[in-house]
Amino acid sequence: MTKFSRIISLLLLSCSLLFVAIASADSAQSYLQGKQRQLTELIQKPQSAANDKKLEKTFDTLLDYRAFAKDSLGKKWDEQTAEEQKEFEGLLTTLVRRSYTKNLRDTLDYRITFQGEHPAKVGALVQTIAKHKTDKRKETVRIDYLVHKVSGSWRVYDIITEGESLVRNYKNQFRRVMKKKGFEGLLEKMRKKARKG
Question: Which residue range forms the structural domain that includes residue 25?
Fold first, then answer.
């Protein structure tokens, strides 16, 4: 191999390594790992108004609330006015943040292991396993995240715990309420739940 050929080979190798590094940094898993780390650190700090605000902002850069709202209502989403959609999304945002915070607190004693990402119907599926740090009798829990790109950044649009979809659970609950009380009845129920927080 000539000197020129070696230089070209080294340049191509360095470019390919650079591409791998960029792809890895931009992967759904690495993004999720970074956000999970930030959230865990914030939750472990003493509770304060300032810390709660930081927590909310971090959630806002991780979760796709609009997707949660649309997917959990299904066809009913398009039947509502813009004002109703906005209120529903706002209430659901409060409830999803609260649920995610509780789940994070519940898993503080668990070691979260990221197990890679795979193509999904939309975006990617990031798989994780939660294993208790000290109590071996505690069963491991599989928590998977469905993510997609929104304005160039990854966002979570569903969370699947041991095969149970958060969006599907919401959808089933909302359908039962609307069957009895209609959409306004659902909003009122969500308002009460949000106020209890």
Answer: 3-195
